[in-house]
Design goal:
Blueprint: E1 3-11, H1 18-34, E2 39-41, H2 60-72, E3 80-89, E4 92-101, E5 104-110, E6 134-139, E7 142-147, E8 151-153, E9 156-160, H3 174-179, E10 184-189, H4 197-211, E11 215-220, E12 222-224, E13 230-232, E14 235-239, E15 242-246, E16 255-263, H5 278-296, E17 302-305, H6 310-330, H7 332-338, H8 350-358, E18 359-365, H9 371-384, E19 387-392, H10 394-408, H11 418-440, E20 443-444, H12 450-455, H13 476-489, H14 516-519, H15 523-535, H16 540-550, H17 555-571, H18 573-578, H19 606-613
Parallel strand pairs: 1-2, 2-3, 5-7, 9-10, 10-11, 17-18, 17-20, 18-19
Antiparallel strand pairs: 1-16, 3-4, 4-5, 6-7, 8-9, 11-14, 12-13, 14-15
Bound molecules: nicotinic acid adenine dinucleotide (DND), adenosine-5'-triphosphate (ATP) and glutamine.
């Protein structure tokens, strides 16, 4: 009975960090050797990083990747490695996996189905390879087999599906690998994180092992590679429909190696059970994304305008939780070293000491702010251990207001100038909080959520100011329930006050009792309309007919809400184009750079809303 120790290595790569990327790969190879692994698979495009964008269009970038591949040969004396990189044949670029063994490249195979949905735009850079086709590649003077090839080690035959290849149902290359009777199929992936996706992948991998009659081995990239997409570093293996291997996801470490003993004939293997929790997945993903963004941008921490409301408080909590998780996985010294931080940390309370250095918050009260939100912000900051300042913005607001009143020769009033008087408050908070970010060489965190993004409920260059927007990909309902969960399940008791408040901008005089939901519509309604309009791409009339059955709202009111959503959605595309970069976290988002493109100028659904109005109520 032939036994082969096979393994997967996930790596946290960064485009253009050639040395860092190579080091992760060689360290992982050494680790694999020490575990006795003989055949090791890395993720898709592990040499360059998946998110290299238009660097892939240049001639030199794929050439440099081949040079990096050559530098790996000396590490393959007594191990076979499979590793992803872009390879040009003539003028055409392919997304490939190279197999290296005994200091030689055995062959290179190319992806057949490119990913083009949602956050993926592979056709911009790559061409797809034709099934069954084989050619040769000139690798520094040596002719290497290139294309749809399979390999063999110790009598065990193996082939590849590269990420999207596996997601194409009956067309997938795996069925032809099955016809060729391979024993083992690797799937090197760059599969973006989305809540709930890991469960979906487990299904894909276990079902593939039955449908393709082979052991199926899956390896994903790790970390916030290049800003927006997060990879969870998942390594999975399945045989006969049983999940045999799964690693801890979203690790703060630069790489992780997992292996198991493969045998063609092994029977009665024990299946692994895994649990999935959306809030936990969200927390782990944002924490790692924040950590990677901070260290890869060479920033020393974060600055946050903390209102004591839901959005800013959730972000403050996530930064503290990032420190907490990084700290428990890596330990203090390794955490600081990996984050490139040189902070002096008090030894008696190191965790809070790190939070104090990394997270600086400020409450910036206006005449319309309440004692409730100040108390909420203060108690949360104190409980997290964050640096907290509290100042007033009233002088700056009056100074701007008086200046403009003098210029235009009249007094501004709430009856006449509501939006301008609201926005000036949000805007004067921006320069001073930016100043703090500059002083600290820190990232300014913007607090937009996806529901606000849908309808443009934010002041441009006011509360939209910031360099990253960590929660812009999730809706407000999700944030509100996550805060409850974080208080109870993660033990953030400092969220008690936050969780007792109703969402409000506090930009109008207090006697007007402004709330977000009065200005807009109930958040659960925004979430439902968004789901149908944006995720499912349905038109207003269809949405009305569906929601009329699902929601307990009068038909007249529902029509008004749908009108408002589409009117605000269309008018505010320019705002979404200007939000700070955000992480992709849910199965869809409204970020125009990744998931959702929409014209900045448009007819604003006039005819489609007219069609809605014609439906009987
Ligand atoms: N297509 C387009 N391309 C470029 N610019 C376009 C545009 N359409 C309008 N504009 C411009 O947009 C500007 C208006 O945008 P902007 O100044 O941002 O302001 P605007 O969107 O009119 O108002 C901000 C809204 O956000 C709410 N808010 C603000 C701050 C915080 C919170 C909170 O929840 O805490 C809520 C506030 O209550 C108000 O309803 C105008 O000057 C207009 O000319
Ligand atoms: N008094 C304040 N002090 C500091 N920052 C503030 C203040 N008021 C508003 N901001 C900033 O403006 C952002 C936008 O306000 P918004 O009301 O949308 O969010 P929130 O207050 O965090 O949550 P909620 O909407 O649930 O009240 C806040 O997240 C915060 O960054
Ligand atoms: N890189 C890819 O091919 C990714 C596409 C695939 N559907 C995924 O999200 O996992």
């Amino acid at each position: 009975m032939s036994i082969l120790k096979i393994g997967g290595a996930t790596v946290n790569q960064t485009p253009l960090d050639w040395e860092g990327n190579l080091k992760n790969i060689t360290n992982a190879i050494e680790e694999a050797k020490s575990q006795g692994i003989e055949l090791l698979c890395f993720p898709e495009l592990a040499i360059t990083g998946y998110g290299s964008e238009d660097l892939f269009l240049s001639k030199w970038y794929p050439e440099k990747s081949l040079e990096q591949l050559k530098r790996l040969l000396p590490y393959t004396k007594d191990i076979t490695i499979c590793i992803g990189l872009p390879v040009r044949i003539g003028e055409i670029l392919y997304n490939c996996t190279a197999v290296l063994e005994a200091e030689k490249v055995l062959g290179v195979m190319a992806k057949q189905f490119l990913a083009i949905d949602g956050v993926h735009y592979e056709f911009r850079w790559f061409s797809s390879w034709t099934a069954g086709k084989i050619t040769t590649l000139d690798f520094f003077g040596e002719s290497i087999p290139f294309g749809d090839i399979v390999f063999d080690k110790k009598g065990i035959t193996y082939g590849f599906e590269i990420c999207e290849d596996a997601w194409r149902g009956d067309l997938r290359p795996g069925y032809r690998l099955k016809d060729r009777q391979v024993n083992l199929i690797f799937n090197p992936s760059a599969s973006h994180f989305a809540m709930g996706k890991s469960a979906h992948r487990e299904e894909l991998v276990t079902e593939s092992s039955i449908a393709l009659n082979a052991t199926y081995f899956y390896v994903n990239l790790l970390g916030n590679e290049a800003g927006r997409m997060i990879f969870d570093g998942e390594i999975l293996a399945a045989k006969d429909g049983k999940l045999l291997l799964k690693n801890p996801l979203l690790s703060f470490r630069p790489y992780q190696v997992r292996g198991f003993e493969f045998s063609k004939d092994a029977k009665s293997l024990e299946a692994i059970k895994s649990v999935h929790n959306k809030n936990e997945e969200f927390t782990a993903a944002v924490c790692l994304a924040l950590f990677d963004y901070m260290r890869k941008s060479r920033s020393t921490g974060f600055v946050l305008s903390l209102s004591g409301g839901a959005d800013s408080s959730s972000i403050a909590t996530l930064v503290a939780e990032m420190v907490n998780r990084g700290f428990s996985e890596l330990g203090l010294d390794a955490f600081l070293e990996r984050a490139r931080l040189k902070h002096e940390i008090p030894s008696e309370a190191p965790l809070k000491g790190v939070v104090k250095k990394i997270l600086t918050t400020a409450y910036q009260g206006s005449e319309n702010s309440s004692e409730d939100t100040l108390a909420s912000a203060r108690s949360l900051a104190e409980s997290l251990g964050a640096t907290f300042y509290d100042w007033k913005i009233s002088e700056e607001v009056s100074s701007y207001t008086q200046k403009i009143e003098k210029a235009i020769g009249r007094q501004l009033t709430w009856d006449h100038d509501d939006i301008a008087l609201q926005n000036i408050q949000a805007r004067v908070r921006a320069p001073v909080i930016w100043m703090l970010a500059n002083l600290n060489n820190a990232l300014l965190l913007a607090t937009s959520n996806r529901s606000e993004g849908d309808v443009g409920y934010a002041t441009m260059d006011g509360d939209t100011s910031g360099s990253i927007s960590p929660i812009a990909a999730v809706d407000k309902e999700f944030i509100l329930q996550w805060l409850q969960w974080a208080e109870k399940s993660l033990g953030y008791t400092g969220l008690q006050k936050v969780n007792s408040l109703q969402p409000t901008a506090e930009l109008r005089p207090r006697e007007q009792h402004q709330t977000d939901e009065q200005d807009l519509m109930p958040y659960p309604v925004i979430v439902e309309i968004e789901r149908l309009a944006i995720r499912d791409r349905r038109k207003p009339a269809d949405i009305y007919l569906i929601l009329k059955q699902e929601l307990d709202i009068s038909p007249v009111q529902l029509k008004k809400y749908i009108h408002k959503f589409f009117r605000l959605w269309s008018r505010n595309q320019w705002k979404r184009e200007r939000l700070a970069p955000s992480f992709h976290l849910d199965d869809f988002n409204v970020d125009p750079k990744t998931w959702c493109r929409f014209p900045i100028l448009s007819g604003g659904f006039t005819e489609e809303l007219y069609e809605l109005d014609q439906i009987d109520e």
